[in-house]
Amino acid sequence: MHRSTRIRGLIALAAVALSLYVALTVPVHLGLDLRGGTQIVLETRPIGDGDADDEATDRTMEVLRGRIDALGVAEPTIARSGNDRIVVELPGLQDPREAADVLGRTAQLTFHQVLGAAANGDDKSEPLPERPREQVLSDASGQPLRLQAASLTGKDVEKAAARLDQQGGGGWHVTVDFKGSGKDGWARLTGEAACHAAGDPARRVAIVLDDKIISSPQVDPSVACRSGISGGSTQITGSFDDSEAKELALLVNGGALPVPVETVEQRTVGPTLGAEAITASAWAAAIGTALTSLFIIAVYRIMGALAAVALACYGLISYAALAAIGATLTLPGLAGFVLAIGMAVDANVLVFERAREEYATRHRPTPRSSVTAGFRRAFSAIADSNITTLIAAGLLFLLASGPVRGFGVTLGIGVLASMVSALVITRALADYAVSRPALRRRPRLTGIAHTGTVRDRLSRRNPSLMRHPRRWLAASAVALVAAASGIAVRGLDFGVEFTGGRLIEYTTDTPVDADRARAALTDAGFPRAVVQTSGENQLTVRTHQLSNAQAATITDTISDLAHQTDKIRDEAIGPSLGKELRQGALIALGVALGAQLVYLAARFRWLLGTSAVAALAHDVVILVGIFAWLGKPVDGVFLAALLTVIGYSVNDSVVVFDRIRELARGDRKKPFARVADQALLQTLPRTVNTGMGAAFILTALAVLGGDSLTDFALALLIGLVVGTYSSMFTATPLAIELHRRS
After folding, report:
1. Which of 645, 638, 598 is nearest to 617 (CA)?
2. How far apart are CA 281 and CA 277, in angstroms?
3. What one-character-per-residue DSSP string does 159-213 give?
4. Is 502 strand, coil or helix?
5. What is the dihedral of CA 329, 332, 335, 341, to 10 degrees?
6. In whole angstroms, what is the distance from residue 734 CA to residue 189 CA?
7. Neighbouring C-alpha atoms within 13 Å toward the C-beta of 633
8. Residue 109: strand, helix, or coil
C-alpha cells in the first residue's frame, strides 16, 4: 500500500472518529421553528432626528435582557442584528402577547408636580404651546390635570416591588425606592405639593408611565410645606391586581429603554409542528438516502457501495460540524441537510464516470490506475461545481435572514463535508478496495470496468445533439414566454415576509370550510382576511398588520368553528421589514447571478460564463413562472430554493464546460461546435446519474417532508429538471451561437 493511501486512510479515520465524538457529546441547537416558541425582532427608533446609535442599542439590549429574565422563560436568547435590530428568542412561549407588550414598552416612568385641574377636552400628552414646560394628562378617573415638566425619572429609582397590603385590605401596590439625588428630588417634589390645601389638585403628585397617569396620590396632611417626604421611598397605588402590580414592578426594575422600540417581526411556532417537521425530515432523509444508495450500488457496484458508506460518513461529519460551530438548525436548514446528501452523490458520480472513461480508453487498464486517474481528472470539475454552490450558500448567509440564513449555513457545511467525503473517505476506501487481489481478478465487480448503460446506448447511436443548436434555443424561448406569461397573467403571491402583515395557521379536530371561516371573520371585523385550507384539518388566515389583541380575536373566531383548535404558527411582519426583505431578495438574486458570472468568466472564458449565467436566468424565470401558474407562495423559503437551484444548475454547466475546455486543449483545430457536442455526450452519463440520485432525495422530501417542506421540495424538483435541461440545451447551444458570432 502506498504511503499516500495510508495517509488518506488515517485522515479519513481521524475525521470520522472526531465527528463521532462531537456528535455524541455536543448537542445541536434547534431553531424555534423546530422546538417551538416565539421569536420577536425589535427595531430601535431614534428620539428626534438621526439614527439610534450603537451605544443606545447596546443599552437597550441590557434592559431587555433584564426584562426577559424576569419573564421566567427557560433558555432565552437575545442577540443584535445589524445596527438597530435586536432578535429575542423565547423557547416554549406560545402566547406572545405578554412578552411583546413587556419587551416593546419603553416604560418611561416620570414623576410630576400637579399644577391644578385643566378644562375638559384639553387632555394632551404634548407640551402646551403657550407653556412649553407643562402638559395635560387625565388621571384614572378621567379628570384632566395640568402637569409641570418631570422632576424625576425612572433613572432615579433604585428598585420597585409588588406588595399586598394584607393588614389594611388596600389590595396590591408597588413600592418604589429612590437612589442618589432621587431621594432629595422626591422630598422636594412632595414638599412643593404639601404647600397646597387638602383637596386641591395641586397637592397631588402624578406618577406617569408612558404618558399615562397611573397614580396621582394626595400628599398626606402630615407632610409639612417645603419639608416633603424624606427617606426616599413611596408607594404607587391604584386598582392593581397581582399581575398588573408585578408587571409594573418588572418594568420599573427593568429600567426605561434608552430609545423607543418597535416590533417589526414576530413568529410563534407550536411544539407539535416542530416535532412533526423533525420526524418528517428524518424519514425523508432515511428513505431518500436508502434509495440513492441502492441506485448508486446498482450502477457502480462495489464502488457504489463504498460511496454509500462515504455518504453515511458525510452525514456524520455535517452533523458534527453544525454542533461544533454552534449553528442553529432550522427547518429550511434541515431540508438543506437532506438536500446536500443528494449533492454529495455528484462528486462520487463524477469520479466514477471519469474512471470508467479511463478504463475504456487506456491500453491494458487496471481498476487501480483507472480510479487514480478518475480522481485526478475529475478534481477540477468537482472543485468548480462546489465553489459555485458555496457562493450561493454564502449569499444566503449574508443577505437572507432568519431560518433561510440557517439554510445557507447548513448548505455550506454540507458542500464542504461532501468534498471531504468524496475526495478523502471515498478515495481511501476505493484505493484499498481496488488493490485487493479478488477485485483485480474480477474487475467488473468494481463497477468501473465497463462503460455503463447510458454510455453504451450513446455509443451505438452516436447522436449529434448540437447539430441544430438554434432549435434548442427556440424551445428554451418558448418555455420562457410561457413562464413569463404566468407572472404577467397570474402575478406573484408574495408571502407575508415580503408584503408585511400577519399569517396564523391552525389545526382543527374537524375540517373547517374556508368560506365559512371567511364569513365568520368578516362578521368579527376582518373582511379582508384571506383564508386557505391545506391538508385535512389545517387552516391558514392571512391579514394585514394586526395587534396581538386582534390576532387573539381571530383565534377565538376560528376556535368557535371547531371543537378543538390549536395554533401551530403565527407570523407578524411589519411593512417596513417586508419591503426591506423584498428588496434584499432581489439584491440576493442579482448578486448571485453576478457572482456566478464573475467566477465562471475567471475560470473559463467570458463566452462560456455568459452562456452559463444566461441559462441560470432562464431557470429563475421558468421556476418563478411555474410557481405563479400554480398559485404557490413566493416567500423566504422559496428564495432559498431559488438560490439553491442556481447553485445546482451551474454545477451541470460547469461539468460540461470543464470538459469543453479539456477537449479544446487537446485538439485546437476541431470546430467549437464539434467539441461542445462531444463534451455534452461524454458528460451525459454523469448528468443522468447525478440527477437520478438528487431526484430520489427530493421526491422523498416532497412526499414525506410535510406541508411545511412540500413547496420547498417542489421548487427544488422543478429546478432540478429545468436546470439539467438548461445546462445541456440552453447554455451549450448558446455558447455555440456566441462563438460563431465572435
Report:
1. 645
2. 6
3. EEEEEEETTT--EEEEEEEE-THHHHHHHHHHHHHTTSPTT-GGGBEEEEESS-E
4. strand
5. -70
6. 82
7. 19
8. strand
- Four-CA torsion 365, 370, 373, 378, nearest 10 degrees: 140
pLDDT confidence bin for 273, thresholds 50/70/90: low
- Name the amino acid, one letter, at 728: M
**Is this structure's pTM higher than 0.90?**
no
> Side chain identity at 504, as an amino acid letter?
I
pLDDT at 369: 86
In contact, 256 and 107? CB cutoff 8 Å? yes
Partner residues linked to 147 by β-bridges: 114, 135
| Residue matched to cell numbers 401551530 | 568
- In degrees and rounded to multiples of 5, residue 575 shows phi and psi of -60, -35
* 443, 449 Cβ separation under 8 angstroms: yes
Residue 643 and residue 342: Cα distance in Å, rounded? 16
CA 498, 397, 412, 605 torsion: positive or negative? positive
Q: Are 659 and 679 in contact (CB under 8 A)?
A: yes
Between CA 131 and CA 432 the distance in angstroms is 91
Which residues have C-beta within 8 Å of that of residue 533, sequence separation ≥ 6?
511, 512, 513, 514, 539, 540
Per the CB < 8 A criterion, the answer to whether 337 and 414 are in contact is: yes
Per residue in 184-213, pLDDT (tens digit) is 898 999 899 999 888 888 999 888 876 778
Contact 608/679 with Cβ under 8 angstroms?
A: no
Would you say 29 and 77 are in contact if contact means Cβ atoms under 8 Å apart?
no
CB of 76 closer than 8 Å to CB of 68: yes
666 burial type by CB count under 10 A (0-12 exposed, 13-18 middle, 19+ buried): exposed
Residue 3, exposed/middle/buried by CB under 10 A (0-12, 13-18, 19+)?
Answer: exposed
Terminal Cα distance for the chain, rounded: 52
Q: Which long-range contacts (CB under 8 A, 24 or more apart) does 16-22 make?
A: 16/313, 16/316, 16/317, 16/425, 18/320, 19/313, 19/316, 19/317, 19/319, 19/320, 19/321, 20/316, 20/320, 22/320, 22/323, 22/324
Residue listed under C-alpha cell 460511496: 307
Nearest-angstrom CA–CA distance, 246 and 71: 11
Contact 439, 433 (CB under 8 A): yes
580 contacts: CB under 8 Å, gap ≥ 6: none
Distance of alpha carbon 63 from alpha carbon 477, whole angstroms: 58
Cell reading at 381? 470539475
Most confident of 293-307, 325-339, 434-448: 293-307
Strand partners, 44: 261
Tell how far CA 268 is from the center of its chain: 14
| Nine-digit cell string for 29 | 441547537
Burial class (CB in 10 A: 0-12, 13-18, 19+), 309: middle
> What integer best gives the mean pLDDT of the chain?
81
Task: Please tell me the distance from the alpha carbon of residue 600 to that of residue 265, in angstroms, as a whole number.
Answer: 38
Retrieve residue 25's grid coordinates. 457529546
Give residue 572's identity as a one-letter amino acid code. A
Task: Tell me the pLDDT band of 707, cut-offs 50, 70 and 90.
Answer: low
Q: Grid coordinates standing for 202?
A: 395641586
Question: Residue 362's CB: how many other CB atoms inside 10 A?
Answer: 12
Rg (CA), the chain: 33
